[in-house]
């Protein structure tokens, strides 16, 4: 069952009913200001940091779900006596509805939500009024715009009151949701009305420690407003039945403490066939400490905030023409970004995911890591060290300069011994242990992201760029030194079998081999890490072989340019490759179980992910990572491991993380065994590592299975099962319930997942086979045989490469009509606009 359809020409997903299985959301914003918006306009907004700069409230676990925070109400007004309208005071409400369905839930005559690239459009009809609400965050702007257009489709004059409402969060989302003894007494607002507009200011805590405020505005005069939530809603009422909407009038309430809101009410008169538009705006303002007040020397203006920056921001979007121009600019921005990688394969599902939705999701995960979604509350998780490095892999081709800045930010949270904070707050860029530390895979991901950046850009100056350790002044070292410490950390933290120590956990946060938690409610991520130097990770072993070799290649290519002596480079590379060989051998000796790679060794030295166990016998992660690293490829073990993966872990919904799932809690394994069977890390289908299996199959020539792995979790291919998946059919989710679960195929944790980046790496670099390297574009497609022709356009290092692939059985490569030996397209000369490539396979 489908609840909508793709509109590829407009790069939109069209939702045809508000009754989707779950709220289906979109993200607005590209840099600092972000909004989440669902197909019924739920969600919230924040500036940079969803924990520390939350602007509007959102209630997770709310009943009913997804109400409040951003609400729109339309009220049809008529004269009390039924005569022609004369004075507004004589009007009464005769019908009310929400143009987004929620929160009023009035059955609409028609409804449509279109989620596009950084914008969403809601179209509805009711009581002879057509409405169109367009929501977006303009480029380089700390504001969300809501343009509401109303059209009278009847042959009589209509009067419609439009009320928009946001509920303010008192900035710190954790404190806002818990410290009520203080917060119920701190809320403050200012109201500014004129004949041209109304602005309502959220200035809570501005007079003491804050240099920022927010505002909500409308570009027309109002017939009233409210800023007190309980006055707006009334006693015992929810967002679906506000008292002021039922009464047909605003109360002009002014908030002092309690729960402040902004709810301007505008009256619109429409003649038959006439349309009118309103522009509502949610803005964020920062001012210098010495410019906070309108006039600090005037006793009559004590406490009046400096509104000049807000006026300037409001003026940029105070007309429909300005708003439409900003939306056009946003559309042009996304068209240009997505144009950097475009394909025509003959498969519309594949094309739409590669050309549009996968890249779009990669931007969102780059921006927000795992911090703010409908599953991550924005209060506990910031920017993950591991997560953000992986997100870069699918984003770096879009805006390399932003990727460069992010790499330096991430490296600056690395600790001097080469380990790293597991996350940092985006506002402060300071690392913290709020979700634990000691995850021993973290350091190696920095090598992966830097290697990807160098392949994409050739910009080796990043290796010489200084980055702090632990954000401490005076600790700066070139990025290359950060990479050295990353690999050295793994080299010097090996266990009894010569495999890397796992620490608290590795990529699988829930495989806690050193924690032994038995206290109810205790976080597995922050409980004491009892690492005794015994618990080892076969997965990190695969990582070290793969990314250790990438580090060696970086040294060989750029070490001397970074000031290293030639002999020092060769010595470091030799040392590195000796360690890689040792870990490779240890993986084959102690990490091989007979038909697949083991997962780990626990703190007692017992193997995990072994045929010797009755549950958790095989895990997905080492099968993908070890084969990607080339371990076991030459002797057939890689092929055997992938065959076991297909046989024992794969079902119609994807490849499960382990099997059989654990049926009891095993303290020596930790959180992984705490979930019900078939969910999350205990036998769920973790979409993040399915691309590793696809890549691994491609590398050993299993092209059909590589593509099959890709399609099993790809949203466009599973759209027809939306009633089972439940999550958005246009983006990847983190987890799909596995075959041993109560509801196989049900998705959770959509949007913010490393699945997006890794899947784009898989499909663009291994299935379609266009892989950037230091020396050129390596072309090595691994598509099934029924794909006979591929057209790929790839922007790379200032040149557009137009690549046509034809399956003839006679391999050849021509570049601008000239035959080239091998399968690497050389880097074009500077200033070259286009290169035409013909590849036959």
List keywords for this structure.
841 residues, 3 domains, 10-stranded antiparallel beta sheet, 6-stranded antiparallel beta sheet, transferase, GH94_Enzymes, carbohydrate binding
Helicity, as a percent range: 25-40%
Q: Largest sheet, order of strands side by side? A: 1-2-9-10-11-12-19-16-15-14
Average of the residue pLDDT scores: 96
Q: Taking Cα atoms only, what radius of gyration do you get, to the nearest Å?
A: 28 Å
CATH topology call of the largest domain = Beta-galactosidase, Chain A, domain 5
Q: Can you identify the CATH superfamily of the largest domain?
A: Glycoside hydrolase, family 65, N-terminal domain
- CATH class term of the largest domain: Mainly Beta
Question: Which regions are unreliable across 5 or more consecutive residues at pLDDT < 50?
Answer: none
Q: Report the sheet with the most strands, covering strand number, pairing sense and barrel closure.
A: 10 strands, antiparallel
């Amino acid at each position: 069952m489908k609840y909508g359809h793709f509109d590829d020409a407009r790069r939109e997903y069209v939702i045809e009913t508000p009754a989707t299985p779950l709220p289906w959301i979109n993200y607005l914003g590209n840099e600092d200001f972000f909004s989440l918006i669902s197909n019924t306009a739920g969600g919230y907004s924040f500036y940079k940091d969803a924990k520390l700069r939350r602007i509007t409230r959102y209630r997770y676990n709310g009943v009913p779900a997804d109400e409040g925070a951003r609400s729109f109400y339309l009220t049809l007004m008529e004269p009390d006596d039924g005569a022609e309208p004369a004075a507004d005071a004589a009007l009464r409400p005769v019908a009310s509805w929400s143009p987004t369905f929620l929160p009023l839930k009035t059955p609409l005559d028609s409804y449509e939500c279109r989620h596009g690239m950084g914008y969403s459009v809601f179209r509805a009809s009711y009581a002879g009024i057509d409405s169109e609400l367009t929501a977006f965050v303009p480029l380089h702007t700390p504001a969300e715009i809501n343009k509401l257009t109303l059209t009278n489709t009847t042959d009589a004059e209509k009067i419609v009151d439009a009320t928009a409402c946001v509920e303010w969060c008192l900035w710190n989302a954790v404190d806002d949701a818990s410290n009520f003894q203080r917060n119920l007494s701190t809320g403050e607002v200012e109201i500014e009305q004129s004949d041209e507009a109304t602005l309502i200011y959220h200035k809570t805590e501005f007079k003491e420690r804050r240099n920022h405020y927010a505002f909500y505005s409308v570009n027309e005069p109002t017939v009233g407003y409210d800023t007190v939530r309980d006055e707006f809603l009334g006693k015992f009422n929810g967002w679906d039945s506000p008292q002021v909407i039922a009464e047909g009038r605003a109360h002009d309430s002014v908030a002092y403490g309690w729960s402040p809101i902004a709810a301007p009410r505008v009256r619109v008169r429409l003649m038959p066939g006439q349309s009118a538009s309103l522009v509502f705006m949610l803005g964020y303002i920062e001012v210098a400490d010495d410019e906070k007040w309108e006039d600090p020397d005037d006793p009559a203006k004590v406490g009046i905030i400096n509104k000049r920056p807000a006026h300037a921001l409001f003026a940029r979007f105070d007309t429909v023409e300005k708003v439409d121009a900003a939306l056009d600019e946003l559309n042009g921005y996304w068209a240009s970004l997505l144009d950097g990688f475009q394909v025509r394969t003959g498969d519309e599902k594949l094309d739409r995911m590669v050309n549009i939705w996968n890249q779009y999701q990669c931007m969102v995960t780059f921006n927000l890591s795992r911090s703010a979604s409908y599953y991550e509350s924005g209060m506990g998780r910031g920017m993950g060290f591991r997560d953000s490095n992986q997100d870069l892999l699918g984003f770096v081709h879009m805006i390399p300069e932003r990727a460069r800045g992010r790499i330096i930010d991430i490296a600056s949270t690395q600790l001097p011994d080469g380990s790293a904070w597991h996350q940092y707050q985006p506002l402060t860029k300071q690392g913290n242990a709020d979700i634990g530390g000691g995850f021993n895979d973290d350091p190696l991901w920095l090598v992966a992201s830097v290697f990807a950046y160098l392949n994409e850009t050739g910009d080796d100056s990043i290796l010489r760029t200084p980055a702090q350790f632990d954000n401490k002044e005076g600790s700066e070292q070139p990025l290359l030194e950060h990479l050295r410490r990353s690999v050295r950390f793994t080299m010097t933290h090996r266990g009894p079998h010569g495999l890397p120590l796992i620490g608290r956990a590795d990529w699988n946060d829930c495989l806690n081999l050193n924690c032994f938690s038995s206290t109810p409610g205790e976080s597995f991520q922050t409980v004491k890490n009892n690492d005794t130097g015994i618990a080892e990770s076969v997965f990190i072993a695969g990582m070290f072989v793969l990314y250790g070799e990438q580090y060696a290649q970086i040294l060989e290519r750029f070490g001397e340019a970074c000031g290293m002596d030639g002999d020092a480079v060769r010595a470091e590379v030799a040392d590195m490759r000796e360690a890689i060989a040792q870990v490779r051998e240890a993986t084959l000796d102690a990490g091989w179980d007979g038909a697949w790679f083991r997962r780990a060794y626990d703190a007692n030295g017992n193997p995990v992910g072994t045929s010797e166990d009755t549950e958790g016998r095989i895990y997905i992660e080492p099968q993908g990572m070890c084969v990607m690293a080339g371990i076991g490829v030459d002797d057939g073990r890689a092929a055997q491991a992938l065959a076991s993966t297909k046989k024992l872990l794969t079902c119609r919904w994807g490849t499960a993380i382990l099997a059989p799932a654990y049926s009891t809690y095993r303290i020596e394994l930790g959180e992984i065994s705490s979930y019900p069977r078939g969910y999350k890390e205990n036998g769920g289908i973790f979409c993040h590592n399915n691309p590793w299996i696809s890549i691994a199959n491609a590398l050993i020539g299993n092209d059909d299975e590589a593509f099959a792995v890709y399609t099993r979790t790809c949203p466009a291919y599973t759209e027809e099962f939306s009633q089972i998946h439940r999550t958005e059919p246009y983006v990847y989710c983190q987890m799909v319930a596995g075959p041993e679960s109560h509801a196989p195929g049900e998705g959770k944790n959509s949007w913010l997942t490393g699945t997006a980046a890794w899947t784009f790496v898989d499909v663009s670099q291994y299935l379609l086979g266009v892989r950037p390297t230091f020396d050129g574009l390596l072309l090595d497609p691994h598509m099934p045989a029924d794909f006979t022709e591929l057209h790929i356009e790839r922007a790379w290092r200032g040149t557009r490469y137009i690549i046509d692939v034809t399956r003839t059985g006679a391999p050849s490569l021509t570049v601008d009509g000239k035959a080239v030996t091998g399968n690497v397209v050389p880097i074009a000369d500077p200033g070259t606009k286009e290169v035409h490539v013909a590849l036959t396979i």
